[in-house]
Q: What sequence folds into this?
């Protein structure tokens, strides 16, 4: 198996609470021939999450063993929890033509940019800082102290938007989905992503 090749590796990143996962879910439903790279994490599942679908929920001991085994393409510690993308999630079976979608944090995206230069990188912004604060509070899973910590970190991470190839402000879900879909469709028809076999067929 080979890593991606001419198929797209699409990185959707941004601060906590900007709607990355929601956008990715819609893209997976709307666009054919694309799949989600399922990350590993040491955090507990949130309501409605299924092991192996949104994430693979593993122990810290198992996660650190994977780090030692160089099993992750990227990994990061985010709010005292570990997250990582296994290399095997980026592999393709011979003859399979499927783009790969990564929903990862800013630390992980920076690592991917260094190791996988051809990745398509997209940064998601909130409509406003006040809206982001409201979204973080509305999750109902964090203490007020944790919400404040996340909000401050989100502001720091937003300063890194210029490192990405594309920036989408998630003003409304429909608008953000349209723009994310447009990026993926445009990238798919770039000449650099077209195999000779696709031309002479």
A:
């Amino acid at each position: 198996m080979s890593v991606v090749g001419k198929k797209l590796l699409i990185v959707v990143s941004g601060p906590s609470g900007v709607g990355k996962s929601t956008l990715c879910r819609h893209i997976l439903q709307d666009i054919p021939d694309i799949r989600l790279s399922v990350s590993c994490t040491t955090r507990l599942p949130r309501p409605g999450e299924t092991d192996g679908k949104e994430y693979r929920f593993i122990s810290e001991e198992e996660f650190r063993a994977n780090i030692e085994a160089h099993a992750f393409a990227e990994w990061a510690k985010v709010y005292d929890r570990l997250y990582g993308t296994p290399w095997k999630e980026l592999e393709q079976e011979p003859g399979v033509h499927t783009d790969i979608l990564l929903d990862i944090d800013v630390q992980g995206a920076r690592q991917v940019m260094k190791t996988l230069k051809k990745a398509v990188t997209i940064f998601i912004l909130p409509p406003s800082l006040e809206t982001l604060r409201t979204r973080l509070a509305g999750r109902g899973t964090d203490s007020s102290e944790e919400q404040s910590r996340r909000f401050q970190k989100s502001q720091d991470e937003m300063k890194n938007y210029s490192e990405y190839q594309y920036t989408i402000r998630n003003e409304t879900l429909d608008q953000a989905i349209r723009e994310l879909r447009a990026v993926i469709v445009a990238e798919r028809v770039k000449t650099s992503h077209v195999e000779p076999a696709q031309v002479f067929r």
In short: Residues 2-188 form a domain with the Rossmann fold fold (CATH 3.40.50.300). Confidence is low (pLDDT under 50) at residues 1-5. The longest helix spans residues 173-188. The longest strand covers residues 72-78.
